[in-house]
């Protein structure tokens, strides 16, 4: 089985800035390139942090209300310092949380979810910036067609990985949801098949309607009809 990697999904040719890049230039970079964030890199092109729309908006939110109707923003000393920053050094969220190009979608998605991030700079073995991957990039795996998912399960999972005849299990795929039906010889085969199908790129859910004739996980036979 082959999974799409961060390197295949990321955007290359990333717009980048430096610690001394001024505030206004960040606003221009975001607008000119139609992006929502820009990595800040050092002299060796290694990410130091990221400046996003939210980082720039903090400057406006911390200002006084021209109409005098709103109370002053209540900010911690650190938040106040960032709201008053005029270059990338003070504006950026740091340190940069980065991904590697060989990572799977699952690895990158878990890091994004755990850190509550919307994008990850991607670095090579030397830590140099080579791309950026966003939430929307990772979600592209769910654009795979039902036909492509069906073929991968039949030929790569059933035949190639488990050594089963593709027609030994009825595989139905609708809107990314996989339904497996049939009777296998062993419980371990059923468990492995369900687990592998859940790992196929683009699968939203797996509905297990499989049976098995012998429970080799306990050594106890189930009977001629199998488990349903």
Q: Would you write up a description of this structure?
A:
This protein has two domains: 6-141, CBS-domain, CATH 3.10.580.10; 144-221, Histidine-containing Protein, Chain: A. It contains nine helices and eight strands. It has helices at 6-9, 23-33, 53-61, 77-83, 88-91, 105-115, 135-138, 146-161, 187-198, and strands spanning 37-41, 47-52, 119-123, 129-134, 170-174, 177-186, 205-215, 220-221. The strands form three sheets. The chain has a four-stranded mixed beta sheet, with helices on one face. The protein has a two-stranded antiparallel sheet with strand order 1-2. It is elongated and about 75 Å long. The mean pLDDT is 89.
How would the blueprint of this fold be written?
Elements: H1 6-9, H2 23-33, E1 37-41, E2 47-52, H3 53-61, H4 77-83, H5 88-91, H6 105-115, E3 119-123, E4 129-134, H7 135-138, H8 146-161, E5 170-174, E6 177-186, H9 187-198, E7 205-215, E8 220-221
Parallel strand pairs: 6-7
Antiparallel strand pairs: 1-2, 3-4, 5-6, 7-8
List keywords for this structure.
single chain, 228 residues, alpha+beta, CBS-domain, Histidine-containing Protein, Chain: A, four-stranded mixed sheet, two-stranded antiparallel sheet
Cα gyration radius (Å): 25 Å
Tally of individual helices: 9
Structural class: alpha+beta
Number of β-strand runs: 8
Overall mean pLDDT: 89
CATH class of the largest domain: Alpha Beta
Order of neighbouring strands in the sheet with most strands: 5-6-7-8
* CATH fourth-tier homologous superfamily of the largest domain: CBS-domain
What shape does the CA trace take? Answer: elongated
CATH architecture of the largest domain: Roll
Considering DSSP H and I runs of 4 or more, what fraction of the residues is helical? 25-40%
Low-confidence stretches: none
Oligomer status: single chain
């Amino acid at each position: 089985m082959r999974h799409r990697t961060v390197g295949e999904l990321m955007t290359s040719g990333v717009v980048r800035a430096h610690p001394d890049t001024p505030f206004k230039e960040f606003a221009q970079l975001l607008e000119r390139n139609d992006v929502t964030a820009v990595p800040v890199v050092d002299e060796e092109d290694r990410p130091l942090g990221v400046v996003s729309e939210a980082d720039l908006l903090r400057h406006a939110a911390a200002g006084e209300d021209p109409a005098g109707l709103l109370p002053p923003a209540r900010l911690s000393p650190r938040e106040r310092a960032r709201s008053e920053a005029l270059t990338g050094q003070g504006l950026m969220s740091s340190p940069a949380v980065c991904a590697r190009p060989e990572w799977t979608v699952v690895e990158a998605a878990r890091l994004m979810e755990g850190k509550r991030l919307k994008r990850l700079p991607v670095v090579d073995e030397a830590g140099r910036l080579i791309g950026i991957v966003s939430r929307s990039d990772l979600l592209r795996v769910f654009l795979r067609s039902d036909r492509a998912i069906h073929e991968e399960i039949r030929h790569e999972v059933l035949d190639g990985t488990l050594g089963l005849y593709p027609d030994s299990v009825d595989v139905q795929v609708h809107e990314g949801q996989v339904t497996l039906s049939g009777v296998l010889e062993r419980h371990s085969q059923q468990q492995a098949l369900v687990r592998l199908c859940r790992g196929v790129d683009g699968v939203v859910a797996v509905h297990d309607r499989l049976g098995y004739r012998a429970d080799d996980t306990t050594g106890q036979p189930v009977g001629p009809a199998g488990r349903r």
